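thought: fold this chain, then report.
action: predict
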Amino acid sequence: MTDLAAIPPPASPKPAKETKAQKAERLKLAKNPWEAWEEVRQFAREGRAAVLPEWAEFYFKWWGVYTQGDGLGVTGGKDGVGKATDYFMMRIGLPNGLLTSHQLRVIGDLTKKHARNLSDITTRQNIQLHWLTIESMPEIVEALTAIGLSPKGACGDVLRNVTGCPLAGLDGHEIIDASPLAVEVARGLTANPEFYNLPRKFKVTVSACPLWCSYPEINDVALTTIKREVNGPNGIQHEIGYTLRVGGGLSTEPHIGIRIPAFIPQDKAYAVVEAVLRVFKEQAGLRENRTRARIKYLFMRHAWTAETMLEAIEAKLGYKLDPSPIDEDVVPDDVYRDHIGITPQLQPGLSAVGASVMGGRLSGDQLIQLADLAEEFGDGQLRATIMQNIVLINVPNARARDLVHRLGEIGLHVEVTPFWRGAIACTGTEFCKLAISETKAFSKWLTSEMEERLPGFDQQIKLHVTGCTNSCGQSWIADIGLEGKKIKKDGKMVDAFYFCVGGAVGKYAAIARQIGYRAAAEDCPEAIERLLRAYLAARESGEDLRAYFARTDDESLRAQLNGTYIPAVERDPAPVGAGRHAPGE
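observation:
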C-alpha cells in the first residue's frame, strides 16, 4: 500500500522571469524619480556604494543621468550592456537650444570642477557632462536650478528636450518666431509629473525655420509652420499655423514621421502636442516590448494611419481640426541645415555667427571663453544646434569677422571644409555602455584624413559616426553613415564600421541603405576616398551626392568602397538589451 504521506507534493510551477519591459513598468509605477531627489542627496552623503541598483540603471535617467561605461563599451559586459564605472554622465536640457552667457559660464565652471573639463553638445541641443561623482550631483543640480536650467527630462521615458531653430526670432526668412511655443511646450510638459510614465522617450521639435534645421522628419512630434487663406473683415487674409508630423525616429528601426492632414492654429498648437502625448501614454500595447515602444510603432506595427492618429488627437482635444489647406508641405531643398557661418539677422545691422564644433566636444575653458565672447561681441545670447554646434547672436555686422577670428583662437571654426561641417559623432565606447566602437576621436581623425585626401571636394556631405546600431549619431540620415562594430584583422579584434549610404532629410528624405560593406576603422578613409572619387568621375552636370547615390545600385557602391567586387555582408543585429539603457538622443 502506498504511503500517501511519503509522496512529495507536486512542485510549484516556476514563476515566469520578469521581462525588461515588465521590470521597467513596475519600477515606474513604484516611484516618480522627480519626487525622490532626497534619496539622491542621501546617496551623495553616503558615497557611491550606497546607490541602489534601480537608481543607477533606471531612475537616474529621469534626472538626465546615466552610469558611465568603462571605456570598452559592450565588450566585457553582458546582455548587450557594458560594465558601468563609479562615474556618471549627465545631460542638461536647453529648450530650443537657448543659452545665456551667464548660464554657459556656470556650466563651464561645473565642467571644470566636476567633469574633468569635458563637455559635449548633443544632437538634441543639450550639453552633456561626464566623469561626475555621486557626491557632486546635488551641487550640480542646485547650480543648474539657480540659472533656470535642469537635467530633468533629458533622459528617461518622458518628454525629452524640446528642440527648435537656433535662429528663431532672428531669421528674416521664417514666417513667425516659433521659439516661444517650443519653450512653452518644454516648460509645460517636460518634467511634468503627469507625464513621468510614458511607454518610452518622446521627442518634440517646434520650428518655423525654412530649412527645417531641427529635423522634423525624425521626431515623435514635429510642428512646422504653414500659411492658409481665410476670409477676414477686409477680404482674403493669410493665417499662420502649423503642420503636424507624428512618428519619426531612428534607433534600430528608422521611420520618417507621418504628416497629419490638419491645420494647427497657433493658439491650439500646445494643446495638440499635449493630446498626442496623452494618446502615446495610453497605448498599453507599446509597454510590452522596450525595443518597440516608441509612437512610430503605431504606424509600423499596429496599422495606424495619419487619419487614425488625427481621430485620436481630436478625441483628446474634444473638437475637430480644420483640414490642411495643402496636400504637401514646401519641403526644403537638400541644403545645409546647420546655420554655420555669418548670417544676417532680421534685426538691422546684426548677424548670427555659427561655429562648427567637431563632434560637439568643448572643454569647460572653451565654454567660459564662449560666454566671454558672447558678451564682448553680442548681448550674451547663444544657441546650441542639433548638429552639435554653437551660434553667437546679435553681433554687429562690423564686428562679425573679428569674432570669427577670435573663435578660431579658442579652437572653434566658422569657415570649414564640407567634411568638417558635416561630421557628427555619438558618445561611443569612451563613455557609453552600449557602444561597440570608439567614435569621437575616430570622427576627428577621419575628417582630417578626408580633408587631406580630397582637399577640393565641393559637395555637402554628412558623414555620421555612431558607435552601435542605436543610431545616436544619426547614421540613418547621413550621406555616409558608419555604424560601429568589431571585426578580426591580422588576428586581432579591432574597431570597424558598417556602411549605410544615401540617407537624407528634406526634399529627398530617405533612410540610408544598408549596402553590405564593412571595414576596419583604419581602412575607412581609403574606402570613402574611393567612393567619392567614383562619384566625382561619374557625376552628371549639376548632380549632387544624394542624386548620385540614389541612381547607383548597392553592388556598385560596395565595389567602389572596396576597390573591386565583394559579396554583401549582413548588418549586425541590435545587441540584446538595446532600448533598455540606450542613451540615444
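thought: worth noting. Residues 576-582 have pLDDT under 50 and may be disordered.
final: C-alpha cells above.
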